[in-house]
Amino acid sequence: xxxxxxxxxEDTSDFExxxxxxxxxxxxxxxxxxxxxxxxxxxxxxxxGLIWGEGEPEEQVFKVHSIFVSPKFRHIGVGQGLLEEFxxxxxxxxxxxxxxxxxxxxxxxxxxxxxxxxxxxxxxxxIYQNIVEIKKFLELDWVKKLQLPEPFxxxxxxxxxxxxxxxxxxxxxxxxxxxxxxxxxxxxxxHKASIGLxxxxxxxxxxxxHRIDGQTSxxxxxxxxxEFQTRGRAIPLAIESLKKADAQHYKYVMxxxxxxxxxxxxxxxxxxxxxxxxxxEIRIMWKDL
Length: 289
Hints:
alpha+beta; 26% helix; single chain; twelve-stranded mixed sheet
């Protein structure tokens, strides 16, 4: 009979085969990232499935990264058991809502119907996951020409001193919202590839990159103060950040765009078409615990 266990840091190697290759490095951060939780399924001590995810405090929701069951053990209740055990652990940790993001394909409708039976419901938010090859992006003619004018100056995120860090953290909720905080997922931040933006010496923005694996970074947050948001500084800021990422030997960058952000969707299709490796529609399901 199969059984379930909460995964500890020392167990991750036994279950990593159930994790998407691009997410395995993050899965192994289970000890480092305190909000990560994982549950494995076993048959006589042999791993046969896994569900894992992490809390997102800014949205007050626990995100399921993936659920996977070995093909020959499907349709016997392992997936449902994993979900129920996982939900129990997430609820015990104080979370009251879960979400599951998935790449939309019509063939998944059967799986959606099962989740509906288990209390999950569709969310109307749709996002797109895009992946770009960094070197080819930096070689585009318009990218080479686009530069930040003076007196805007970028700086490496790891160059911030303790005083500046303290002042910046204290400004949360003042001139930047918590969901645009550069510190919200700090353990994942690549401080060498991420950059900040100054205007006449004052910090007014940032481009924060997270390490996914040795080849891929995630552009988690690009932000400038409200009074600078109509000046077209975000794209040049992102370009400077990707130059840093290239110097750190990243090959790809991943970013997400809300389907309702028509301007950014048009920009992605028009300006990035030649370097775009993926443009995937991501849909979301929720469950109240």
